[in-house]
Every structure is written in C-alpha cells, then in structure tokens.
Task: inverse folding
C-alpha cells in the first residue's frame, strides 16, 4: 500500500460518534457554567477604572450595554451544543464567543478558555452532534459515523497541551516545589514539606508527560485515562474549588472523549447495566 | 479526480496545517517574551507577575491597586496583562504621576517606566 493510499485510507476512515457526543455534552456544560462566571468577570473588567489592554489593536471592546447580548449568545449556544440542536451552528457561535473572550483584552485571557475554545472548535469540526443529539433525533436516529482524522486531531490537541505544560514546568523554580507550595492552598501546611513538594513537582511533570503520550497506546491508555481523571478531579480541591478550575477540569476530562472508542462506551454501558440488574435482583431476593 | 476522492485532500490539508500551527505556537515563548505566551504554561511559574507601583512627582510611590481605588484608573485584573505596556497609558494622564515601577521579587530586578 503506497503512502498516498494509506493517507487516503486514514482520512476516509469513519468512527463511532458516541464518545465525542459525550465529550460535546460535558464540554458544553462547562462552557455554560463558564458563561455565568464570565458575565460577572467581564462586567468587572469593563468598569472604567480597569486599564485597557487590547490583545489585538483596534479590536472593539464590548460595552456594558452589549454584555447581556454577548452572554445570551454564549449561553444559548452552549445549551444548543449540549442538546445537539443545530450543533454545527451552535459550535461555531460558541467558538466565536469563547474566542472573543480571549482576544478582546489581556485582562480576559485565560489558559482554560484557550483550551476550551480549541476543544469546542474541534468537536464542531468532528461533527459531535452526529448522535445523542436533537439533530439526530429529528432525522430518526440514523446510524452515523464521524471522520477519524477529526477525532485524531482532537486527541492530538489534548496531547500538545499536556506536552507543553509539562515542558514549561521543567525549570529549577517549579521543580524546587515552591510553586506547588504556594498554589496547593487546599492542602494542610503540615504535609507541604519541602521534600514532599519537590517530589510532587517531579511527579506532576512525569504525570503530564505520561498523559501526553500514554493516552495513545493500548497498553497505557487505561492507566493514562485513570490518572488524568484523578488528576483533574483533584486539582480544584488541592488548589481551591474555584469555578474556573472546575470548568478546566471538566473540559479536560470531557476532551478524553477524543481518545475513547465505541467499544469503550459499550463496555461502560454493560458494566453499569450488570451492576444495576444485580442490585435489583438482590433487592428482589 | 472526482469530488468525493478530492475531499480527503482538503481534510489532510486542514489536519496538517492545524497540527503544525498548534504544535509550533507554544514555541513562541522561547523566542519572544510576551505576557500571553500561548505556551500552556499554567501553574509553571514561568511568568512572574510584578508588583506595580505608581511613582508620583513628590518622590513617593503608591501601590497600583491603591492608586486605582483612589483615582479610578489603572486597575489590572487579569494575570496575563503586560503591565509595562498598558498601565502607563492609564495612569500617566493623572496629575502628579511621573511613571510606574515594576518589581520582580523572585528575579531580583525592577523596572522604572517614566511617563512620556
């Protein structure tokens, strides 16, 4: 098989859409929560005493009068993306709303919104409304597929983030444990010894580097998924349960849908069904 | 070449361009220091946020937050703001302001920026 034929096969292969449909719902919920948080935050930034810091010179900054309309477009798009109603349009509007948040002013730039906008965009490109959506319901529940290349692109994006965030932490300052000592405000001071924090810093770098690559290989995939979920679920509690950290964790865990396959969804479904039926049987007995 | 068979080429183009851009953008921070580095540097301590104070004509300095509360200008909310670039245009029009000072405690350096 020639290289071109292999490339063509890769770009024409189709996959079960259920994992990215799940990702769509989780990320849309996170975007909806973020919209509520952002409303108050942007309102604060728009006060006259805040120093204007445009990311792109000449880009008009939202006015206080326009904020409710911007928020409504964002929130409605997030809801439509969640339920899968006109999913591509909803995804495009959500991408635009989140994108504007990033480039309107440096006061509004956040890494988790940068991550979220890319994931929403890639879910939209991949056709995450192909199943488990209103769009799918309206056409009579057809069996649909999504392009493998688009799902792979989403997975690659997640790995790029893990790789570079691990790379950025390979510095004497981070590896000394000082950064973790300061940011892990949710942990008691008694356990934040210099030795433990240094070890934890090395552990964080190793863990993120493992996630960057481990999610791709069958032998390490389950371990990487479990580590990733555990890490993201614990971050808001180890630092502080800020809404923004909860939103970031939900987006990251949701994005794992790019690494899942239809068989994984079936496996989870079977495991849950058997547990439910065994519980029901035990009650009857 | 039919439309169906050409479709994968557009997909391949989009795939490799997107991947190339996303893989290359984070490298920007190694070549150019910027408050928004796109390098996924969250919680790495890569960028030290300076303590900013406003220098007044009488030789005294006021912390930026206090100045913003009192004068109603110059408040910085986000952590990705380039203070050296955007605080002077906000505070310098106020009477008696001669510049700002940024102190990077960890790096052990400071930077004085006079008003134009």
Result:
């Amino acid at each position: 098989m020639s290289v071109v034929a292999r490339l063509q096969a890769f770009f024409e292969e189709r996959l079960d859409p259920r994992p990215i449909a799940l990702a769509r719902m989780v990320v849309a919920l996170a975007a909806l929560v973020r919209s509520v948080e952002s409303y108050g935050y942007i309102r604060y930034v728009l006060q006259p005493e805040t120093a204007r810091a445009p990311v792109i010179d000449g880009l008009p900054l939202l006015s206080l009068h326009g904020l409710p309309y911007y928020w409504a477009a964002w929130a409605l798009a997030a809801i439509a993306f969640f339920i899968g109603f006109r999913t591509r349009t909803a995804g495009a509007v959500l991408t635009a709303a989140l994108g504007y948040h990033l480039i309107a002013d440096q006061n509004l730039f956040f890494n988790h919104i940068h991550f979220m906008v890319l994931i929403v965009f890639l879910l939209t490109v991949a056709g995450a409304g192909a199943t488990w959506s209103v769009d799918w319901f309206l056409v009579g529940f057809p069996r649909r597929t999504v392009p493998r290349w688009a799902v792979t692109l989403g997975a690659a994006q997640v790995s790029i983030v893990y790789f570079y965030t691990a790379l950025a932490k390979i510095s004497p300052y981070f590896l000394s444990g000082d950064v973790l000592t300061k940011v892990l405000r949710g942990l008691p001071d008694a356990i934040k010894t210099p030795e433990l924090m240094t070890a934890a810093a090395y552990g964080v770098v190793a863990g993120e580097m493992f996630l960057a690559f481990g999610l791709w290989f069958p032998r390490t995939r389950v371990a990487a998924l479990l580590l990733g979920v555990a890490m993201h679920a614990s971050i808001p509690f180890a630092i502080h349960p800020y809404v923004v950290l909860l939103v970031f964790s939900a987006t990251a865990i949701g994005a794992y849908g790019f690494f899942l396959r239809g068989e994984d969804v079936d496996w989870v479904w079977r495991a849950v069904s058997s547990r439910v039926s065994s519980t029901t049987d035990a009650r009857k007995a | 070449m039919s439309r169906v068979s050409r479709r994968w080429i557009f997909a391949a183009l989009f795939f490799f361009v997107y991947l190339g851009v996303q893989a290359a953008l984070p490298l920007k921070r190694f070549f150019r220091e910027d408050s928004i580095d796109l390098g996924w540097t969250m919680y790495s301590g890569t960028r030290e946020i300076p303590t900013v104070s406003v220098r007044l004509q009488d030789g005294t300095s006021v912390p930026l937050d206090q100045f913003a509360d009192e004068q109603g200008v110059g408040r910085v909310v986000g952590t990705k703001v380039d203070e050296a670039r955007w605080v002077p245009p906000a505070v310098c029009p106020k009477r008696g302001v001669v510049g700002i000072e940024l102190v990077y405690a960890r790096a052990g350096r400071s930077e004085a920026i006079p008003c134009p």
